[in-house]
Amino acid sequence: MTTKKPRGFTPGQLTVHADPGELRAVTRTLRVAGRRIAFVATMGALHEGHRELIRHARLAKGASVTVVSIFVNPLQFAPGEDLQRYPRPLEADLEMCREEGVELVLTPGVEDMYPEGADTTVVPGPLGSELEGAVRPGHFAGVLTVVAKLFHLVGPDVAYFGEKDYQQLVLVKKMARDLDFPLDVVGVPTVREPDGLALSSRNAYLSEADRPRAAALQRALRAGASVSARGPQAVLDAAREVLDAEPALDVDYLELRDPDLRPDVQQGKARLLVAARLGTTRLIDNTTIQL
Ligand code: PAF
């Protein structure tokens, strides 16, 4: 197909837009020209898990342009959380995008996304106050607000989110459905270190001594999954035993829910979710379970 090349876009090359309005003009022109857009929203500090999301986006059926956003969203951090120390290695992030054939990156500033007086937000349903939302009040309102804005700016046909943040994935899917966003939201399995630790930008905070302790989360999930035929209580007990054996971990929750995160699952497909603190670092992980 011959497409008129919009300004701010060079096929086969990475173009970085700091201005959301400029990026929106480019993606609008591409859409009008019949190009399908695949999108990956990130807060930067890109790792192999993000690379996997980008690869899925590049391979999306019929999608011809991949857009990545890099924005550390202050709205999803509570006071006292790690907003200030969140890693921001922009050059390395852009290098990964280049390596993976991303053509458009959006790197807005806080004032571009939230100009003075902008105070309208997306309110999640009750699930937004459970699990992570119970420990981090307001977190998912911040996530959904920025994701809604990014969906409007980028106008993707399909967007990829990691299963590592499983509750985020469920809530973004639900928002897209409830608020009629015309796109598919697709989950991508978690990428892990050889010892099982789920990749996360926050792993950069872990000391050498903490690394093996952090992998206890994945060991707990595996222990739970290994006794899934014995029912929900056996799964929770087996996982809890592994967590209890690692005294450095301060567990926030260990829960078994259905794939949409409704509680009291007794049989069929389920999700086992865990969150714990290791010193000042918060870790989350989850796995699918067949009860
Ligand atoms: O998963 C993340 O990195 C963030 O929560 C997201 C989806 C980019 C929104 O800021």
TrEMBL record:
<keyword id="KW-0566">Pantothenate biosynthesis</keyword>
<keyword id="KW-0067">ATP-binding</keyword>
<feature type="binding site">
    <location>
        <position position="168"/>
    </location>
    <ligand>
        <name>(R)-pantoate</name>
    </ligand>
</feature>
<dbReference type="GO" id="GO:0015940">
    <property type="term" value="P:pantothenate biosynthetic process"/>
</dbReference>
<comment type="pathway">
    <text>Cofactor biosynthesis; (R)-pantothenate biosynthesis; (R)-pantothenate from (R)-pantoate and beta-alanine: step 1/1.</text>
</comment>
<dbReference type="InterPro" id="IPR003721">
    <property type="entry name" value="Pantoate_ligase"/>
</dbReference>
<comment type="subunit">
    <text>Homodimer.</text>
</comment>
<protein>
    <recommendedName>
        <fullName>Pantothenate synthetase</fullName>
        <ecNumber>6.3.2.1</ecNumber>
    </recommendedName>
</protein>
<feature type="binding site">
    <location>
        <position position="76"/>
    </location>
    <ligand>
        <name>beta-alanine</name>
    </ligand>
</feature>
<keyword id="KW-0436">Ligase</keyword>
<keyword id="KW-0547">Nucleotide-binding</keyword>
<dbReference type="Pfam" id="PF02569">
    <property type="entry name" value="Pantoate_ligase"/>
</dbReference>
<dbReference type="InterPro" id="IPR014729">
    <property type="entry name" value="Rossmann-like_a/b/a_fold"/>
</dbReference>
<feature type="binding site">
    <location>
        <begin position="43"/>
        <end position="50"/>
    </location>
    <ligand>
        <name>ATP</name>
    </ligand>
</feature>
<comment type="function">
    <text>Catalyzes the condensation of pantoate with beta-alanine in an ATP-dependent reaction via a pantoyl-adenylate intermediate.</text>
</comment>
<dbReference type="GO" id="GO:0005524">
    <property type="term" value="F:ATP binding"/>
</dbReference>
<feature type="active site" description="Proton donor">
    <location>
        <position position="50"/>
    </location>
</feature>
<comment type="similarity">
    <text>Belongs to the pantothenate synthetase family.</text>
</comment>
<keyword id="KW-0963">Cytoplasm</keyword>
<dbReference type="GO" id="GO:0004592">
    <property type="term" value="F:pantoate-beta-alanine ligase activity"/>
</dbReference>
<dbReference type="GO" id="GO:0005829">
    <property type="term" value="C:cytosol"/>
</dbReference>
<feature type="binding site">
    <location>
        <position position="191"/>
    </location>
    <ligand>
        <name>ATP</name>
    </ligand>
</feature>
<feature type="binding site">
    <location>
        <position position="76"/>
    </location>
    <ligand>
        <name>(R)-pantoate</name>
    </ligand>
</feature>
<feature type="binding site">
    <location>
        <begin position="199"/>
        <end position="202"/>
    </location>
    <ligand>
        <name>ATP</name>
    </ligand>
</feature>
<dbReference type="InterPro" id="IPR042176">
    <property type="entry name" value="Pantoate_ligase_C"/>
</dbReference>
<feature type="binding site">
    <location>
        <begin position="162"/>
        <end position="165"/>
    </location>
    <ligand>
        <name>ATP</name>
    </ligand>
</feature>
